[in-house]
Amino acid sequence: MRCIKDRLPHTLPWCTSIRGTVIKSCKFYPLLVDNDNKVLSFPPIINSRYIGEVNPTHTYLFCETTGTNLEMVLLVTNILATNFTDRGAQILPILIAYPDGKKVKTPQDISEPWELSPHEVQQLLGISLDMNEIHSILRAANYRIKDGKLYPPPWRADIMSVADIIEDIAIHRGYNTFTPLGLTDFTVGHSAPIEELIEDIRNIMVGIGFEEILSHVLTSKDNLIHRMNLPERKIIEIDNVMSLSYSVLRDTIIPSLLEVESLSSKSLYPHKLFEVGEVVIYDPNSPEYSRTVNHLAAIVAHPQANFSETHSYLNALFRQLNLTYKIEPTSHPSYISGRVAKILVNNNEIGIIGELHPEVLTRWNIKVPVSAFEIEIDAIG
Question: Does the keyword Metal-binding apply (predicted)?
């Protein structure tokens, strides 16, 4: 792999991906060969020049799909076969024989059967259709009807419930065929109380000299744990990520501020940054195993940044909000011992304030002291 990466720079992202995620725990890399033991491809890095190169004179193409999940591999093969069919190609199935005797024919229809009643359609769309009309519309959407059951097209992986099938009925029947309904209720819209509080907090933070940033709720596990000098903990991870930089949902905003600060070393000090945004907390007692709340986080960065200065900003914020709070000493791996405290409102812990540990600053490549605080807005709303 090192040889391929050095000779073919365009393969670098794939080499990095396969080493970093796909087969990190495997002892061997996949290599496909033919009966003559000649290399066909080194998935997903590169095809063989011997037999894998395609040019305009070729009339036959051998399409190979490799992956770690058979269902996804079959789906991708179906999509690929459909694309070629739409362009006039003839698809010749392949029988794959595994060493254990298992045989798989591809492309393969992996569609699951669904049942749908006119009543369900009427409930969601508000129109009466009989089964003949439903079947006629769905056939136009490439569904197969067999023994009263509905089979989505083999290239569709987005049918999660009957609601998705009913949506297909609406789309192929035409939204313009629906009769608009007039409004039956009169309502007056207004901001939710929590949104008004968030807007007040933004205005106060800007008024005391802070600059607001807006960052992604998605971040990396490394940012939340390793760079913050913290042990492993439960966080909400994303399946099938395209990039490790956006593989988890943040449960704190301070790493997002430190990421901006790490890129701002050439700007004149002091730096005073804040962000108001959503975080997602792992919660085993919730049906979704998570809860989404609003946080405020702020950092102060300059050669003399300290706890007292940041505390003065926190005090100004609560004074402007007309709220009473107190702080009590605590310990936290991200902060210097003896210079960190928990923030309490009505004896409930709602946040933390302190001077960030030198190890944290080193991992973020920040050259000046940084003090910070973070609070849960929903807890004071």
Answer: yes
